[in-house]
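Issue 218. Parser rejects a valid record. Input:
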Amino acid sequence: MTQKVDLWFDPMCPWAWMTSRWLLEVEKVRDVDVQFHVMSLSVLHDGRDLGPDYRRAMDNGWGGVRVALAVEREHGQQALRDFYTAIGTRYHPGGEPKTDDTIRAALVDVGLPESLAELGHTGAHDDELRRSHHAGMDAVGNEVGTPVIHLNGKGLFGPVISPAPKGEQAGRLFDGFALVTEYDGFFELKRTRTVDPIFD
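Output the parser choked on:
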């Protein structure tokens, strides 16, 4: 029986990117269907007291999530997956700036209208963005960011991984992740990160 896995991501988060690449690999080796959903670090940190550099990043983060949500709304789930792969490849392994030009290029990469990039500058659909955000994040509380996965009726932050495993190793990590979601009393596993995201 196919397991449904829901991933909430913000395109600008490298850790969510790593987790998404892992889940796409899991789809090759396990009977799972990954559904992608938009959350927003800018929504998460709205109104919080942040350092100036992080505040600038959050202020700049609205464009990518607004456009991602518009892609899903107007073109569907597969288009969202494709756009996330395109924009994430440019942002993360590609190291491109988080600008309108990069968003437009990612839209072109997957055959979507460049005009969608303009929606990054309007808050007209921010209520919808906040609904998508809270659908993923409310289940895990406000002490975490992205990635968030919902599986077996549980929402969990993570896993935070680097690099993303491939093949059967990806499948085995998923098996372990799925097991911890089966226990109602499970809350946290963590250790300090010792590496940055390794894009391969």
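Fixed in the parser; the record now loads. The longest strand covers residues 3-9.
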